[in-house]
Amino acid sequence: MKNKPSNIRLGIFGFGCVGQGLYDVLQTIEQAGIEVAPICVKDKEKPRSLPASAFTYNPQDLLQDESITLFAELISDADEAYSIVKQALVAGKTIVSANKKMLATHLPELIKLQQNYNGTLLYEAAVGGSIPIIRTLESYYSSETLQRVSGILNGSSNYILSKMESEGLSYSLALQQAQKLGFAEADPTLDVGGFDTVNKLSLIAAHAFGVTVKPELILRFGIDVVGEEDLEAAATIEARIRLVAFAEVNPFNELNLHVLPTFVPAQRELYHVVNETNGVTIDPVFAGEQFIKGRGAGSHPTGSAVWADVSAAISGYRYAYRKTKIKTIVLNQDKKITIYLRCPGGASLPEAAWENLVKIQETGEATSFTADISVKELQSIQTDLAANHIFIAQIAAEQAVNIALKLKQKAEVAYS
């Protein structure tokens, strides 16, 4: 930072994509009155844009420094992140985090630590990149009942699907392009497998509905076996496949959560969310549907979200978790949904409580179906479906009827 008088010392853990982004943002805000303490990193040999004097390699150098009351935890290791955040909160300090896996895994405990030790934890950047979804839910909708929240929360997966659609790239080529641009990691499993989105949905559920849910309890399928034929099937009914996080409460105050590839129709806002952009739809009971869209990946968009939390923390903002205190909503995964399935040649559907199972297309390479099944039942056969590389996507009931007709008409035209 520039050498100028300041009244706040900020301790930053991590100087990767997000840490660098936050530092760049801070360089442009002279009036912030913030001095950045030596940044804590792990690898002493890694080339960086700042001189070695700008770094320290022991987290305790920051955590034990009484002159630092505000921290930004921006490292990738969830266990180390948990240790840092917990120590800061027990000391009654303020910390901002972008580690969605750590937060989703430990959220109930982290809420209690804030209450018991008067610490503050903010984590906007962990959910929607540059989208202020947590602040919107926590502040604007803290006292209004929500019916559902759904959205695209992973820029890497969305970029891959967009490029497969718009440029006809194969999954592997689109993934390579996303990795080259820094939107996907060298090991993309967390993104394309839906794990990253599940962690984010877990955090959204706490603020939107007051329910803290362990990520492993949420139904999750990714896009790692999506094929050109699936995108073409969606296009026949004017839809696009998107990895969508979905949370909905029924009239009995039962919450359903899942993360699934989804046939999104052209009439929905999420249909128009492309590349590394994220988008979230909020459906309150009285206010009517709201939609927020913004960049969900990249150094500066995420760094700006961290800065927004830092700035809010300086002004005394903290989450109230009002809905978690009410506890009127409970998790129930018995809801039945309609899905599209594509089985590669030689694979077959596992035994399950399928309803309205309809074969909609059969070629020498694959067989496609639509069917109804409960979220809980689908979760029970998730391992079998993945082992057989069966692609699934949620599809509306009326879309399921339409896609069968459209694919039949397409096959008749091709045959003639």
UniProtKB/TrEMBL annotation:
Residues 14-124 form the Aspartate/homoserine dehydrogenase NAD-binding domain. PROSITE patterns: HOMOSER_DHGENASE. It comes from the Bacteria. It holds the Pfam family NAD_binding_3. Pathway: Amino-acid biosynthesis; L-threonine biosynthesis; L-threonine from L-aspartate: step 3/5; Amino-acid biosynthesis; L-methionine biosynthesis via de novo pathway; L-homoserine from L-aspartate: step 3/3. Keywords: Amino-acid biosynthesis, Methionine biosynthesis, NADP, Oxidoreductase, Threonine biosynthesis. This is Homoserine dehydrogenase.
